[in-house]
Amino acid sequence: MNQSFKYLPQNKRKKILLICDDIRVHSGVATVAKEMVINTVQHFNWVNVGAAINHPEQGKRIDLSEDSNNRLNIPDASVFLYPQNGYGNPDIIRQLLKMEKPDAIFFFTDPRYWEWLFQMENEIRTKIPMVYLNIWDDMPAPMYNESYYESCDTLLAISKQTENINRIVLGDKAKDKLIAYVPHGINEEVFRPIKEGDKHWDDFLNTKKKLFGGKEYEHIFFFNSRNIRRKCISDLFVAFKLFKDQLPEDKKDKVALLLHTQPVDDNGTDLFAVRDMLLGEDPNILFSTERISAESMNVLYNLADVTVLPSSNEGWGLALTESMMAGTMIIANVTGGMQDQMRFEDENGDWIKFDSNFCSNHFGTYKKHGKWAIPVFPSNTSVVGSPKTPYIFDDRLDFRDLADALMQSYKMSKKDIKERGLAGREWVTSDESMASSRKMNENVIKYLNQTIDNFKPRNNFEFIKIDKLRVKQLQHKLIY
């Protein structure tokens, strides 16, 4: 148990109603939520409305308290799970408010999933506060999210860009909210470098043999994420081909691209077809497709020389944080929350901050960055959208630039690669980055307590003067 988190007896704790993915599954949201819950059960009682597609345990109430007791060595954890198909609905929330009597609602993921919850905000906030752990992938500031942000008492922003977006979109209304930067945190005891003699060393060797069939590679690139369009995996394949084409003939068979993803997905593409078109049945493009534990995922990061994430939109990029925590370098597109993890510095040597005059570093305003990262700046930015999200920048890198980044890492010595990777781990575990599980949970405890202690219930009704709705025009430059 983290001794910095104050232990409170169960009857003295505040109860938090957490609405997100089922904390037992392996999604990025669930992984982060689980870290929050299991490491703060000595301070909060938790109720998780746990979402999944076609959840087989829909309608049950599952007690996870004993497992939480064993993990943190405390006698009286209180963690209950209500499995749901999707993220819930107004009737379920009304029932749980009556049955569980929580002190706050805490929820996160894309606001489009929460329209029904935002529509209940006046009903909910007459009793308890709403806390939104939120993220937005890119600029321009989404003025169409204003009513969502306004519906919350507290906005905890996963990225620096998101924190700035919250303030820009709310304008003068931001002063009435608690807005704070709380990046995703990774467990540094699970994701860590594996050395010979480590308790996971045999797993490392067995996984290596299983994936590579006894073949030794000189340089391994690793991709870990979903096969969806915005992840730009096909661009990575093209970049890998261009990179290999530049190698001497006797070296081309000694590099590998390892992907932990589904090779075929309707939300993405057929990666087998992309591979075959570019490289034939290249045996050095390898897939890991099984659902695996966090410990097994850490083995994959340790097998790699560098982790690559070329996404054109990425709110955070959890694979980068896990990779850095494992002591493995990263290559990534400069967009969204990924730029936080590269730690770009301003002219004073400080980690960059965003405001209405400088909204993102995707245009390459600052070039100096952490030694653990090889950034690839987008070659073009286009505006895409849909009826519910009418506009958002799509930051596309040029696969030729990505190929150059792959080559840059390849030319580094093994010693240099390892030193850079360990520098990433040192930074990602630091208080400055706040990207460790320890710091994330300290912040969650701090801001949930602050929200509950300062909460002022809304009135049961309010008078609103009906005026013409203002045009939600951008309050920042398009080029910064």
Main β-sheet, spatial strand arrangement:
3-4-2-1-5-6-7-8
Estimate the helix proportion, in percent.
Answer: 25-40%
Strand content is 15-25%
Q: Regions with pLDDT < 50 over 5+ consecutive residues? A: none
Tally of separate helices: 16
Determine the N-to-C terminus distance. 45 Å
Principal-axes geometry comes out as: globular
Gyration radius from CA atoms, angstroms:
23 Å
- Can you count the beta strands? 16
Structural class: alpha/beta
Main pleated sheet: 8 strands, mixed
What's the average pLDDT?
Answer: 95
Describe this structure in words.
It is a single chain. The chain is an alpha/beta fold. 32% of the residues lie in helices and 17% in strands. The chain is built from 16 helices and 16 strands. The protein has helices at 28-38, 65-72, 90-99, 115-118, 121-124, 146-150, 160-170, 201-212, 233-245, 271-279, 294-303, 318-325, 338-342, 399-410, 414-428, 437-454, and strands spanning 14-21, 44-52, 62-63, 79-85, 104-108, 130-134, 154-157, 178-181, 219-224, 255-260, 285-288, 306-309, 329-333, 373-376, 380-384, 392-396. It has an eight-stranded mixed β-sheet, with helices on both faces. It has a six-stranded parallel β-sheet with strand order 11-10-9-12-13-14, sandwiched between helices. Strands 15-16 form a two-stranded antiparallel ribbon. A hairpin with a 7-residue loop joins β15 and β16 (392-396). The chain is globular. The two termini are 45 Å apart. The mean pLDDT is 95.
